[in-house]
Amino acid sequence: MDTRRHIKNAGRIVVKVGTSTLLYDNGQLNLYRIEQLVRELADLYNQDREVILVSSGAIGAGVVRMGLKKRPTGVREKQALAAVGQGMLMHIYDKLFAEYGQTAGQVLLTRDNYMQHRQYNNSRNTLLTMLKMGVIPVINENDAVAVDEVKIGDNDNLSAMVAALVDADLLIILSDIDGVYTGNPQTDKNATLISEIDEITPQIEKLAGGAGTAMGTGGMATKIEAAKIATASGVTMCIAAGAEKNILRRIIDGEAVGTIFPPKEAHLKARKSWLAFGKRINGDIVVDAGCVKALKAGSSLLAA
Ligand code: GLU
Question: Can you give the CATH number for the domain in which 228 is found?
């Protein structure tokens, strides 16, 4: 419960909003909710906090603009729609933030920006400079050009990587579900919301299951992956319902909403964080049975 009390001191906050929160079930933009979100973020900024928005919805907005009935399955079509929708989304964010006298700046990332150490540092420096200049970064994956091998694939993981990258104090993931439940709330009426998860055990991972909604790509599983990255990097994470009124303010006031994940340790240094979550795995190490035995007994594969 201490974690909830400390939240109000969070100075650097990353907020991730999923497609299902930004769109109505019929696929149209939920302007009311987008407006509320920007208003809350602007208010956090006015409290001298630094805010970063990781927003999904590019493909969804592209579907709206092109008047399609549903999201296409082809990669190229989705990429083309992301190019259309990202511009649309950014236009809306820019306009709404400007109404509150604030400036938003778009940053589109791919896994590459994390894998290459130089790019990792560059992205970090850009984001930190934007914050220093008082600009609110609005981030998404660069869906229009990212292909499978450089794709992060879901914005839950992306937002955790961003939070680690900028040493955020808090990551809030706004979703269509208000947190992690002890069972599936749609089928199990005894399922209750877990307010705090101190340890991501295999049982918690099992609760998270798979799959997301028709519009978004994440589900609870990617949120749990995000929690692992965030908490291991010294970032407190909270999953909460994007549809709830004044949700950001309530989380920051320490109200018991959503599911909170306390951080494991103090912020990892940028290089350590890159080593842990950014670098690409380029091959496999194959060891024989004797070596397995030695490793299990505590020996190291590294030269002395
Ligand atoms: N980057 C995708 C988009 O803007 C969303 C990824 C996700 O849903 O997590 O449509």
Answer: 3.40.1160.10
Q: Ligand 1 centroid to 82 CA: how many Å?
A: 9
Report which protein residue has its CA nearest ligand 1's atom 5: 56
State the residue range of the domain holding 153.
2-296
Protein residues with CB under 6 Å of any ligand 1 atom: 18-19, 56-60, 140-141, 143, 154-155, 216-218
pLDDT tens, position by position, for the chain (304 residues)? 578 888 999 999 999 999 989 999 888 999 999 999 999 999 999 999 999 999 999 999 999 999 998 889 999 999 999 999 999 999 999 999 999 999 999 999 988 777 777 888 899 999 999 999 999 999 999 989 887 766 788 999 999 999 999 999 999 999 988 999 888 877 888 889 999 999 999 888 887 765 444 444 458 889 999 999 999 999 999 999 999 999 999 999 999 999 999 998 766 666 666 666 665 566 788 889 999 998 888 888 877 6
DSSP string, the chain: -HHHHHGGG--EEEEEE-HHHHB-TTS-B-HHHHHHHHHHHHHHHHTT-EEEEEE--HHHHHHHHTT-SS----HHHHHHHHHHHHHHHHHHHHHHHHHTT-EEEEEEE-THHHHSHHHHHHHHHHHHHHHHTTEEEEEEE-TTT--GGG----HHHHHHHHHHHTT-SEEEEEESS-S-BSS-TTT-TT--B-SB-SS--HHHHHHH-S---SS-S--HHHHHHHHHHHHHTT-EEEEEETTSTTHHHHHHTT-S-SEEE--SSSPPPHHHHIIIIISPP-------HHHHHHHHTT--SS--
Atom number, ligand 1, closest to the C-alpha of residue 154: 9
- Please give the distance, rounded to the nearest whole angstrom, from the Cα atom of residue 70 to the centre of ligand 1: 15
The preferred substitution site among 155, 173, 213, 215 for testing ligand 1, maximizing ligand atoms within 8 Å of CB, is 155
